[in-house]
Amino acid sequence: MAAKMSKKVRNLIIGAVVLLLLVAALVVLLLNPKETVEEESSESYTASTTVVTLIESDADSINKVVVTNPAGSYQIDRTKKATDDEDAVYGIAELADFTENTSEYDSLLSQFCNFSASRLIEENAPDIAKYGLKEPSHTITLYYDDGTRHEIRVGNQLPTGSGYYMMLDDDKNVYGMAQAKIDRLNYTALDFMDKNVIEPWSSYTGEDGTEVTAAVIDYLQVEGGTLEDVFRIVPLTSEEASSTSSSYGSSYKIVEPFEADMKYKSDESGNDQHLVYTTGLQQLTADSVAALNPAEEDFAAYGLAEPYCTISFSRDGTEHVWYVGDAATASDGSAAHYLYSEDQPVIYLVADSNLPWISINLEDMYSNLMLLPFIDDVEKIDLLVYDKTYTIEVDAEKDENDKTILTPHLDGQEMQVDAYRKMYQYLLAAPAEGINKSEEQGTLVASFTYYYREGGSDTVELFDLGNRTCILSINGNRQWTTRISYVQHLETNIEKFENGETPSLDY
Questions:
Q1: What is the average per-residue pLDDT within 5-15?
Q2: Which residues of 1-37 are buried (b: 16+ CB within 10 A; e: fewer)?
Q3: Could you give the count of Cα atoms lying within 13 Å of 326 in the half-sphere of its Cβ?
Q4: Residues 220 and 332 placed together within one structural domain of the fold
Q5: Which of 71, 99, 78 is CA-nearest to residue 187?
Q6: What is the mean pLDDT of the chain?
Q7: 67 & 185 share domain
Q8: pTM here?
Q9: Are the beta carbons of 165 and 179 closer than 8 angstroms?
Q10: Is 437 strand, coil or helix?
Q11: How many Å apart are CA 408 and CA 386, to the nearest integer?
Q12: Three-state secondary structure along 322-391?
């Protein structure tokens, strides 16, 4: 019995040992990166997962950098040494006449002056061709003031896609380089250009101590794109901005292809969506630079010989013109267009999201309400509805609180002021629902003229064109159309008002 028990115990111990070995093996697998396992199974070498420092140097001691990649090669030169007060300055000779993005030079130098490989792949590799390093796809060579240099050569992508094989100088070892390093090595010389199409505008404090928060746009004119006619806006004058007889919600007005109030188009937060057409002129950043000093063939190649759209404007007294060419694709895959600015001879690629001017919907730009005179300012209204005429005269007095008390009369008969207010609201609601492109004169079916206490008047006329549409004319400008149902309901409302009933705003 004792011998039998010992055997059972022995079997239990053996089972426990086997279980411990299995657990240990599992731990080893979990602690070793999957990437290393895959590489070891696909190559006849032993890889290390330890980061290896290869270059330690001072960026300011680098006087030249040469980069070669599948797109070509370029050279960055130090044009000014660093001092105690100023950093070193670097540039590319062919970009010297343009605005360069100096931060990109700094980023490239800082990325490679102190350089570490993600790991050692193979020591003294006898066959570098299998890594794509016999004919490298990318090289970057750093030249130093003391005459030394470092050359980094890049080959194929790692099997896991997480980096690239690389070698340094005369070192026979093959290393892994992190994926992030290759991005800047894919740059061309044009990627070091400043991508601001226009110098960014920033707020400032004026001589009177007032903060100036927006550029002065003296005019904006757009031709082409989605527009059939030239579109032009200008700022309101101080008199127009304070007028009580217009519906200005924006600080700009349309002057071409017609004269109209600029619509205030509110978003969910109450912001004017149409402000983008002027605030967008404060800064325009390109996705990339396509060409410098373009020749005639370049303008043709990018669709700029016959531009798709032309954007002209004056910002703070300086004229600018942008020409938009062919459609293309931005670096993030979004829609874009080529653009040429007269400010400097550069063709840019700009995302459509930064070019609101190329897709203007003209019928969405003007205010539907053409006249909004303040009710207290109107002393008389003459109305014509089909074959009937009416006159509304309004007396106005101030009470002890300096509030205006209105007393309306229709054809000499005193009316309820609340009913008059509804009638007045309906007159103001005459909507410009479309642009009049008809050559027909139409038949006059209604009109109303506001006479102001301080002098002057405004007249609205409606001409039936048939097809349930009529021309809406403002002071003789027959630019607009509206539905004939507005006139039909106007007839009903004036009859209600005449009978002492309250007019309705619906139609």
A1: 42
A2: eeeeeeeeeeeeeeeeeeeeeeeeeeeeeeeeeebee
A3: 10
A4: yes
A5: 71
A6: 88
A7: yes
A8: 0.76
A9: no
A10: coil
A11: 23
A12: EEEEEEEECCCCCEEEEEEECCCCEEEEEEHHHCHHHHCCHHHCECCECCCCCHHHEEEEEEEECCEEEE
DSSP structure string for 211-274: EE-S--EEEEEEEETT-SS-EEEEEPPHHHHT-SSS---SSEEEEESS-EEBP--B-TTS-BGG
Residues 222 and 359 in one domain: yes
Residues 6+ apart with CB under 8 A from 501: 419
Which residues neighbour 329 within 8 Å (Cβ) at sequence distance 6 or greater? 335, 336
Lowest mean pLDDT among 141-150, 177-186, 352-361, 362-371: 362-371
Domain presence at residue 178: yes
Phi, psi of 462 (to 5 degrees): -125, 125
Q: Which domain holds residue 272?
A: 214-364
pLDDT in tens, 392-414: 999 999 888 889 999 999 999 99
> Are 340 and 380 in the same domain?
no
Residue with tokens 């403002």: 474
Phi-psi region of 496 (alpha: psi -120 to 50; beta: other; left: phi over 0): alpha
Per-residue model confidence as pLDDT tens digits over 312-363: 999 999 999 999 999 999 999 999 999 999 999 999 999 999 999 999 999 8
Q: How far is CA 360 from CA 92, 412, 462, in A?
A: 39, 49, 28
Are both 57 and 173 inside the same structural domain? yes
The pLDDT of residue 270 is 66
230 in Cβ contact with 357 (< 8 Å) = no
